[in-house]
Design a protein that fits this description.
Layout (H helix, E strand, L loop, with lengths): L7 H14 E9 L4 E3 L17 E3 L4 H21 L10 E5 L3 H27 L6 H9 L11 H6 L2 E7 L12 H41 L13 H16 L5 H14 L4 H6 L1 H24 L7
Antiparallel strand pairs: 1-4, 1-5, 2-3
Length: 311
Amino acid sequence: MSADTMTDGAARAAAAKIEEDTVYLDLRLSMFGARVKMADDDYETDADKKMVHAAKDILESKELTAIYRFDSQTRGTLRRMYALPSPELRGGMYRITVPAIPLVEEFLKERQQTRRGLVRVFMEKYRDPGPEGLIAKAKAKLKSTWDASEYPDPEDVEATFGWEQDYISYATPTSLRKVSSQFFQAEWEKQNRKCEQAAEQIIVLMRAQAQGLVAHLVDKLRPTEDGKRKTFYATNVSKLSDFLGTLEARNVLGDEELSKLMGRVKKLIDGVDVEDLKKQEGLRSSVLKGMEEVKAGLDALVQSGGRKMKL
């Protein structure tokens, strides 16, 4: 792509790429809910209880919290590293390029396996009938508000931990021709407009993601005003590496400007040891100089917007 203004033909070509080379991933993760509504007799208030609703946690479990956080990390990593940026999609839906599907499947397989282990640890605690079991501890803390009927059998609890995923295509169904050719055409044009908008948005947001990552690294590499080094973590580099690792598979729109600039980033950080980057002033200065140049290029790309492109 060049920096010329995006033509109508380019917009249609981008829309076709979105429709042909991307799918939606519907990922549905479920888990046991430990918060329940309290009966009116279990709490006191001077307000009309028709207007007030109280809840309680029937379990206090670090194991359950670990699963919740793990699921949140799975969704966040999937959205940040593997999916195309699509803020219009509801939670649990991700736009995935066809070339990225093998990477996504490898990631999800590993996450699902790890999640099973976390669920097993939680269930061991839930099944424990002793004083260190989750139910016994909850009974001691909830006192008069404890209700045995709120604790399902272990098999039923384990069944609440679900993992379902499906790949979906939202191309205009050809069966709509059976209604009428005019109706099919109208629906096709509507879908095409959505794809055009999505393509422009994807270009803008992927550039912004790259800019944010590079700008953050530049900030960490720059010394403070009094010349001291800033605190530097391995994640400052690894997050950029993760982005680079899936960029080629996600760049189905062929954003050459972004690809070229991020290729320079790859050369700058590829094989660089984080500890060396922390300690070696010459290496730090060299990487910083290159990153500042890349940042300037990304700043210009982001300012140009998605319409400043041509397929």
